[in-house]
C-alpha cells in the first residue's frame, strides 16, 4: 500500500512538467504552422521570425531539461557520521556528550555555518553534518548542496547542481514569451478586430498571444527575484533566514560583490554564461565568505544575533530534519518554541536543537 501511494505521488509530481511541455509543443504548432506558415503574408517576414524563434526555443527547452534532469547535489561521504557515532548520538541523552560527538565529527570538515549555539548543523534523517548552505528537502528526502527550493514545475530540487540552469530557464522562457507576443500581436489585433479569415486556425493565434502574455507577466517577477538572489549570492532559504556564522547571522555572509556573485553561479568562462552547461568552479561544499570565518567548533556558547540584539533559542539539530519535531513546518526551516512538558523528564532529553 505504501509503495503504491508513493508511486501515485511520484506520478502526480510529473503533472506540472507534462503540462509545461504540452504548452510548449502546442505553442510550436501555433507559431510555426498557424502564424508563420498560414497567417504571415511576407516570405521575408516568415524567414526572419522562424530564424529568431528556433534558437530561443532550443535554449529555453535545453535549460528546462537540464534543470529537470540534474541530480540534486549529494553530500560527500566524509560528512556522514559512521554508524557507531550516529547510533550513539541517537541513544545519548546527555546534552554535553551529544555536543562533543557533533564537534568531534565536524572538527576536520570545511564548514563555517553553524547553529545558534555554535555547533555544526546536523541532519538527523540523513545522519550527516550539513555542509555550508546545505538543507534537507522533505520532498526528495535528501540533504541537497546549496539548496534553493524544491520546484514543482521542474519536479526537482533547485540547488548547487542546477541553479544556473533554473535561472537560464526562467530568463529564456521570459524572452520566448515576449518574442512570441511581440511578433503575433499585430495579427492578433487584426483577428480580434474582425479582419482576415475566420477559420479555426486563427483561434490558435488568438490563444497564442494570450498565453504568451500571461506566462510572460508571471515570469517577470520570478526571474527578477532570482536575478536579485544571484547578484546577492543568496538562496531563497537564505533570503528568509540568514545563515549563521561564529559572529552571528549575516545575510550577506557569502556575498563577494555583484560580479563575484554572478561568477559563483555562472562560472568564469564568458562563452558558457548563456549556455545550459555546468560551469561553476565550486564543489558545492566550500564557499568564499565576505569576511574571514573560523571553521572550528570548540566554542559552545550562544552565537550572538546581528542587529536586533536577540539571541535565537539554543538547539543542536536542524528543524528541517529532526524526527522529534515531526509536527512542525520544516519547509522554510522556521523555528518555534518547544512544547512544554514535565520539566524533570525533559531535563534528560535533547532540548537544544538548531534554529537553522
From TrEMBL:
The keyword Acyltransferase applies. The chain crosses the membrane at residues 14-40, 47-65, 169-193, 205-225. Its EC number is 2.3.1.225. It catalyses: L-cysteinyl-[protein] + hexadecanoyl-CoA = S-hexadecanoyl-L-cysteinyl-[protein] + CoA. It comes from the Eukaryota. Its main location: membrane. Residues 341-356 have a biased composition (Polar residues). The DHHC domain is required for palmitoyltransferase activity. Belongs to the DHHC palmitoyltransferase family. This is Palmitoyltransferase. It comes from Mizuhopecten yessoensis (Japanese scallop).
Amino acid at each position: 500500500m505504501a509503495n503504491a501511494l508513493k508511486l501515485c505521488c511520484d506520478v502526480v509530481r510529473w503533472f506540472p512538467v507534462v503540462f509545461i511541455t504540452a504548452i510548449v509543443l502546442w505553442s510550436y504548432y501555433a507559431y510555426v504552422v498557424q502564424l508563420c506558415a498560414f497567417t504571415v503574408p511576407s516570405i521575408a517576414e516568415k524567414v526572419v521570425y522562424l530564424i529568431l524563434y528556433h534558437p530561443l526555443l532550443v535554449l529555453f527547452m535545453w535549460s528546462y531539461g537540464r534543470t529537470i534532469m540534474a541530480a540534486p547535489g549529494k553530500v560527500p561521504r566524509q560528512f556522514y557520521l559512521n554508524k557507531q557515532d550516529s547510533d550513539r548520538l541517537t541513544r545519548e541523552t546527555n546534552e554535553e556528550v551529544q555536543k562533543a560527538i557533533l564537534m568531534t565529527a565536524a572538527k576536520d570538515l570545511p564548514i563555517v555555518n553553524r547553529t545558534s549555539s555554535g555547533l555544526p548543523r546536523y541532519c538527523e534523517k540523513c545522519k550527516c553534518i550539513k555542509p555550508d548552505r546545505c538543507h534537507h528537502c522533505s520532498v526528495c528526502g535528501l540533504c541537497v548542496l546549496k539548496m534553493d527550493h524544491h520546484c514543482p514545475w521542474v519536479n526537482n530540487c533547485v540547488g548547487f547542481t542546477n541553479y544556473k540552469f533554473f535561472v537560464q530557464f526562467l530568463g529564456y522562457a521570459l524572452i520566448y514569451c515576449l518574442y512570441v507576443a511581440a511578433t503575433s500581436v499585430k495579427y492578433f489585433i487584426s483577428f480580434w478586430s474582425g479582419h482576415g479569415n475566420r477559420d479555426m486556425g486563427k483561434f490558435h493565434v488568438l490563444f497564442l498571444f494570450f498565453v504568451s502574455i500571461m506566462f510572460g507577466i508571471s515570469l517577470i517577477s520570478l526571474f527578477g527575484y532570482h536575478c536579485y538572489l544571484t547578484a546577492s549570492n543568496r538562496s531563497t532559504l537564505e533570503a528568509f533566514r540568514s545563515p549563521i556564522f561564529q559572529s552571528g547571522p549575516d545575510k550577506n555572509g557569502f556575498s563577494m560583490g555583484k560580479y563575484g556573485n554572478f561568477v559563483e553561479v555562472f562560472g568564469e568562462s564568458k562563452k558558457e554564461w548563456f549556455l545550459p552547461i555546468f560551469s561553476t568552479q565550486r564543489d558545492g561544499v566550500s564557499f568564499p565568505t565576505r569576511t574571514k570565518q573560523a571553521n572550528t567548533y570548540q566554542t559552545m556558547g550562544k552565537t550572538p544575533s546581528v542587529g536586533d540584539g536577540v539571541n535565537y533559542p539554543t538547539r543542536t539539530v536542524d528543524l528541517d530534519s529532526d524526527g522529534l519535531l515531526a509536527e512542525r513546518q520544516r519547509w522554510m526551516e522556521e523555528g518555534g518554541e518547544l512544547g512544554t512538558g514535565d520539566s524533570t523528564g525533559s531535563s534528560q532529553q535533547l532540548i537544544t536543537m538548531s534554529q537553522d
